[in-house]
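Example record

One chain of 119 residues, shown exactly as stored in the release files.
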Amino acid sequence: MLKRIALAGATGLWVPEASVDHWIEPARQSVAYLRRFYVGMGYLAARRAIVNGRIANERARRRLRHRVVWKQALYVAGRATGHTAWWLDSLRKGSMLQGRLLAHQDAQAERDAASPGAR
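Predicted structure tokens for this chain:
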């Protein structure tokens, strides 16, 4: 936000002693939100890689599926045992992997649609 203000030509004054209250709305304080956020991050990263020529073949997509399942299992185990750092890390990594997988599946569907006789 500050960068946009500066780019618009505005100026400001830094006050180190000033306090700031950060407010996170309740809708963004859920596991479902975190999962959607990280799936989106993984999807975007993979789509950027795909544009640059890094396309996952069927074998790589299968590996991604296995990794997603494994991270989901670690997430469930972490939640069941109360290991917050463990389940949170598994949720983040597993969701990003899920996003990557979705992006590669979408890219494959787009390739299939563009060349119907290829498969």
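Notes: The chain has one domain: 24-109.
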